[in-house]
């Protein structure tokens, strides 16, 4: 999908997407501190570790997109790019105070539309995106489906969490799959 039709930020809430910046570290720290379920998203416990997490986001072939309210990061969509295979691994999280507003669904759909668009159309030129979520994290599955991902399989007993083995659902979305159809969020730096 072309990103040309994505609206510019507007309205009092000014919810938008932009690249993650080094000065987002305090907001990252706040999101990790706000909810115990952020624990598996990274090792962030203070400002120093938040800075290291942001450094990790900004290196190693990753695309890191901040979901922002009035330019302040409240959530994240990341894509670890496998350039050789023109594919990417997608991950996301939202500060607990902004959950349940469809912002993550819209952000992941918008980022994945751009990731799968050809370079000539302003996209990142990827042809396949992948993600996975634990079966006991249905909100993540709802986000994935809203962003046009299809379930491709079940990885049985993949993780050991609290002494129990937990299955993971594997999802994929191809460039040739139907567009998500979820209302996009605007790009602040379009
Ligand atoms: C998963 C997460 C990103 C969802 O963020 P969010 O901003 O609440 O997502 P959205 O509001 O866009 O959508 C949430 C969807 O999950 C649904 N949902 C929420 N809790 C649910 C539950 N217990 N069972 C079923 N669906 C649920 C909501 O109804 C909504 O679906 P809908 O839009 O069809 O109504 C957020 O909970 C989070 O950051 N969790 C911690 C990190 C994480 O787990 N990341 C994903 C790793 S795979």
From TrEMBL:
Domain of life: Bacteria
Pfam families: Acetyltransf_3
Limits of the N-acetyltransferase domain: 15-175
Protein name listed in UniProt: GNAT family N-acetyltransferase
Organism this protein belongs to: Brachybacterium huguangmaarense
């Amino acid at each position: 999908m072309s990103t040309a039709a994505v609206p510019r930020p507007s309205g009092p809430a000014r919810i938008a997407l932009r690249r993650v910046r080094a000065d987002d570290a305090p907001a990252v720290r706040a999101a990790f501190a706000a909810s115990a379920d952020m624990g598996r998203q990274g090792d962030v416990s203070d400002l120093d570790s938040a800075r290291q997490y942001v450094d990790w986001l900004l290196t190693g072939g990753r695309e890191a997109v901040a979901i922002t309210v009035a330019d302040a990061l409240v959530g994240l969509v990341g894509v670890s790019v496998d350039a050789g295979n023109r594919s990417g691994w997608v991950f996301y999280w939202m500060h607990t105070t902004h959950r349940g507003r469809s912002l993550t669904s819209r952000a992941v759909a918008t980022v994945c539309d751009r990731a799968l668009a050809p370079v000539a159309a302003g996209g990142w030129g990827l042809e396949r995106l992948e993600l996975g979520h634990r079966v006991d994290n249905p909100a993540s599955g709802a986000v994935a489906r809203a962003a046009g991902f299809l379930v491709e399989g079940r990885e049985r007993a993949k993780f050991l969490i609290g002494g129990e083995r937990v299955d993971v659902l594997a999802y994929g979305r191809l460039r040739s799959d139907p567009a998500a159809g979820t209302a996009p969020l605007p790009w602040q730096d379009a």
